[in-house]
Amino acid sequence: MLPGFGEGKDVTYYFRTQFTVPKGEKADIKSLVGVLEYDDSATIYLNGTEIYEGKENGRDTGTQHAEVLLFDSDEVLNLLQEGANTVAVAMRDKKQEEHDGWFHLNLAPHDGTQEKLDHTSIWTYLDNDTDPAGTPGMEGYERTSWTEAGFDDSIWSKGIAPFGYQNSHKSSVYKNVNPPEVGATELKFKGSDGKNNVHAYFFRTDLYIEDLDKVGSLNGWISCDDAAIVYINGVKVFEWTRDAINGNLDYAYGPAGNPSPTAFKVTDLADLNLKQGSNVVAIELHQDREDGGDIWLDFTLEPSEEQVEHLSNIVMNPGPDETQMYFTWYADVEKNGYVALAKYDRGTCFIPFGALERSGKEWS
Questions:
Q1: Positive or negative torsion for Cα 122, 128, 129, 134
Q2: What's the CA gap between 331 and 326, in Å, rounded?
Q3: DSSP character for 6?
Q4: Do residues 211 and 95 lie in contact, with contact meaning Cβ atoms separated by under 8 Å?
Q5: Which residues touch 358 (CB under 8 Å, ≥6 apart)?
Q6: Does residue 285 surpass a pLDDT of 60?
Q7: Under 8 Å CB-to-CB from 359, ≥6 apart: which residues?
Q8: Taking the mean position of all CA atoms in its chain, how far away is CA 201?
Q9: Residues 230, 286, 252, CA angle at the centre, nearest 5°?
Q10: Cβ proximity of 325 and 341 under 8 Å
Q11: Stretch 229-256: mean pLDDT, rounded?
């Protein structure tokens, strides 16, 4: 919290910092990404030139605001220089009985190589209520063609996760998951007719894999409202839905009423056509009904060297009562084994069941 300087007066605070672009690496920078938090207004300058003015500037709502930042235009990137670059911010706290100024900025260069997907990863997205695959029923139409490498998404918008929209200040889902002090890329909520909600949203990004031999599985995490399907190189790897989704512009319910952060692990890699270099990760996000109040997507994905062996010779025996079950299998590793329960009801997630006791080479 910043100090105030008397009642009834606007107060402006000034901040400066620097980051370094090593010699010969300016051309590698494809964008600047980050998050700006402020109360009540903020303006960002790069090397003396204004590049951003906070969306809430001029308002005093009594709360902190946060906005995700993505600068990839030539106008901004041409301001960069080899060596020291100065970022300056003017933050104004508007007059009120008690000053409550707040400021935080995280801004970093991005070279476009994403070895994991997190809150600095850049996505392209489509939120205009059109089908990215074209017109259903037309010759050559493939519903999931937009999830594959080679699909042209050059006219799509760009942003960083999380993504969301709150149709009403009474929307408990959006407030609970994304209060004003947490930034999100804002999605369009109404379709071209201005009346009905956008049916579905589509997202694409690249996951860069440097060494395929070091990838044994992929660890994912998703929080969404309402329903979502995740693809890698055109192959569906995770589904968070209550019912089957048959059309790109279908309304669809998720298995839970509110966003429930869910971890998942992708272990069957053989069919994903993973390759050294860029691999396409795509997500479709569906609204549940035409009068829904919000939409939300947050997502992370990271390769892991951990390899999960799928066994078919598992023996199950009843436990001492109806609440327990024994699992037994053979293994030739010296570390603890685990059972993961996978319940499939159109939404698949792995729930750790607990460490198992080892006796010789038998686990139970």
A1: negative
A2: 16
A3: S
A4: no
A5: 336, 337
A6: yes
A7: none
A8: 13
A9: 105
A10: no
A11: 90
Tokens of 211: 């060494």
Is the distance from CB of 280 to CB of 219 less than 8 angstroms? no
Q: How many residues does the chain have?
A: 364
Query: What is the gyration radius of the CA atoms in the chain, in angstroms?
Result: 24
Q: Residues of 248-280 as b/e, b for ≥16 C-beta within 10 angstroms?
A: beebbbbbeeebbebebbbbebeebebeeebbb
Would strands 157-160 and 294-304 be described as parallel, antiparallel, or unpaired? unpaired
**Which of 83-92, 114-123, 149-158, 248-257 has the least mean pLDDT?**
248-257
Q: Which two tokens stand for residue 158?
A: 């760009």
Element (H, E) at 293: none
At position 85, the amino acid (one-letter code) is N
Q: What DSSP element (H or E) covers 315? A: strand 315-318
Burial zone of 223 (CB within 10 Å; 0-12 exposed, 13-18 middle, 19+ buried) = buried
Q: Is 283 helix (H, G, I), strand (E, B) or coil?
A: strand
Is the dihedral angle over the CA atoms 16, 117, 29, 126 positive or is it negative? Answer: negative
Please, how many CA atoms are within 13 Å of residue 213, restricted to the half-sphere of its CB? 0
Q: Across all residues in the chain, what is the average pLDDT?
A: 81
Task: Copy the structure tokens of residue 290.
Answer: 């035409």
Question: Based on the number of CB atoms within 10 Å of its own CB, is 37 exposed (0-12), middle (13-18) or buried (19 or more)?
Answer: buried
pTM, two decimal places: 0.77
Whole-Å CA distances, 363 to 43, 142, 314, 324, 330: 60, 46, 10, 16, 6
pLDDT tens digits for 155-210? 999 999 889 886 533 334 444 444 444 578 888 887 767 777 899 999 999 999 99
Least Cα distance to 232 among 266, 276, 255 occurs for: 266
Count CA atoms within 13 Å of residue 29 on its CB side.
Answer: 26
State the Cα–Cα distance between residues 356 and 137, nearest whole angstrom.
Answer: 52
